[in-house]
Structure formats: C-alpha cells, structure tokens
Amino acid sequence: MEKIVIKTGDSVSEILVGAGWEMVHELLPESGVAILTDRNIFRIYGDKFPDFPVFQVDAGEASKKIRVVESLAGELLETGIDRDGIILGIGGGVVCDLAGFLASIYMRGIRCAYVSTSLLSQVDASTGGKNGVNLDGAKNVLGCFKQPEFVICDPEMLETLTEEEYHSGLAELIKTALIGDRKLFELIENNRAGISRRDPGLLSMCISMAVNFKAAVVTEDERETGLRRLLNFGHTYGHAIEMYKSYRHGYAVAAGMELASRFSLSRGMITREEFERIKDLLNSYGLLPGHDIPDDEIIHLIMKDKKKSGNDISFVFLNGIGKAVAEKITVKEAAEFYIQSKTDK
Predict the structure, then answer these.
(1) Which end of the chain is more exposed for a tag (fewer CB within 10 A), N or C?
(2) What CATH code is carried by the domain that includes residue 167?
(3) Residue of 314, 127, 96 lying closest to 216 (CA atoms)
(4) What total of structural domains would you count in the chain?
(5) What is the domain range of residue 80?
(6) How many Cα neighbours within 13 Å face the side chain of 42?
C-alpha cells in the first residue's frame, strides 16, 4: 500500500493506493457516519459495508442532479447526522461527486471520505476535492471544492467493473500520462495485455503514478487558477461529445484528447509520430467512438463549458507526450477546428 498525502490550506487528504477496501472499518468513527452508494455497488459489496445507515442512488450520470442532493440531505437530517458527522461515499465518480458536494453544503459543511470503486474514480474523480452536479445537460456547472479525509483505491475492486466502465477509466489514466508523466504513458503503452487483464500489481503502479501527479498539481493549485487547468486536457471537446452523444465520460474524453492532440499537431506542438502513438493507444483500448456533431451545434455545446470566460476558453494543448500547456483561445476557434477536423479525416 502507498499513502499519498494532499495538503491544501488547512485540510489534509490521504489517498491509500493498493489498500484492501475493507480497511475502511478501521478508519471510521464509531458513530455519526452515513454511507452513500449506488444500487450496483450495494448489490456487489453491501453485505460487507460498515454497520451504518446506507443511502442508495441509481448508478450513472443521471443521479448527478441537485434534486438528488436535496433528497439525500433530507435523509441525512432524518437519520440524525449532525455537524460532527461524516459521509462515506462507496462508489465511482458519480457517488464521490455527490458525497463531496453534499458534505460541503450539509449544515454548512461536514466531513467526507471515499472508497473509490472504479478506475476513473481512482485515478481522477475521487482525488483533488472537485465535486459537481449537472444542470440541464451542462456538465458540473454546480460545484465546489471539498477535500475528502481519506480515499481508498483498491485495485481488486476493478475486477467487478464492466469492460465499458473499465475502459472509460483507462481514458483518464492515459490523460494523466499525456499531460504529466511520459513514463506512465510508456508503461501503459508497453503493458497493454496486463492492463487489459486488470493485473492488480500493474494497476496499483499506474494508479499511484497518476495520483502522485494529481496530488502535486492540486497541492500547488487547489482552486484551478493555473496549473490545475492542465487536468482538463481533452475535456473541452469531450464534454461537448458527452452531452451530445451521451457517451460514458471516459470515452467522450478520449475522443476529446484525440481532437486536442490533432489540434496540437496542427500547431506544430507535437510530432506526427507522437500523434500516431497517442491515437494508436486510444484505439487499442477501443476508446475512439464516432462523434459527428453538426456544425451548428458544436459552438453552442462549447459555450456551455464551465471553463469559458466571455468568448474565450482555456484550452489544453500538448507540448510533447508528458507535457501540456493551457492557452486561451476563442470559442469560435475551438469550434472551427472541430468542424475542420471532420473534413480532414
């Protein structure tokens, strides 16, 4: 097990990579705990949950709504959870988002912690303190920063994921490699068979490398005013594709990364060889679905992106594999490149 510590302001968050998830029993207080999970996770692991009240939501993005948060807050109140309480989220990115968001606003803020059950959550969503819910199809526009006290990332839990969910998480792992760790990219590139069969030791290594990079970024820039913007690589186009096509988050982000890499290539920031390596790796995991968004729709979708400021947007380009840079471009320029890329293929 590796313990990775994130210190931001007056909060300390411990990410436990490679730990067995049932050690959560040792980390919780004796009372004042409420567990939030989804129905799929409860069906698989619920009989081993700590003995506290459990609130279940439907699995999937449809649960990331403010009315779900409101309903959960009412249940916490009825259960008697007060300002000394703690919400334990056991699930993937949706559950962690909901648990963190709810903990940040319930009684003006209570503690939270996570058992992260999906690869996407272990390498990205559960680390760093960003929580959000969707509004009328716009992704994560209601959000907050709330650091969990601890996160358990047990690679053994990834065995129960569907192929689609597992590969969706691989996209975020590849994203981290592309923006900040060339060695991680090469590890993923050279160990495709082991990653495909979900080798726990290999996954622990990959997850640790990804979390260490994100921890360093979040420690320096918790509120996304500078360096943390790089974590949005692929997300400008990815969120538009996710909203229009209703793909899983990772698949949409993978498509967005291919487009952002192509954009970087057009600016001479990466070589053709680097672009082909990136595209080949994404293709090898089946992560590049079609996404022919109509020309008159793409600009409206990008305009809903929370990274937009006026007519500009902070767009993340690659400056080589393992290096990234955020640059302000116009929404029109981003949309025009998307339209142009359809004719170039």
Answers:
(1) C
(2) 1.20.1090.10
(3) 127
(4) 2
(5) 2-160
(6) 14
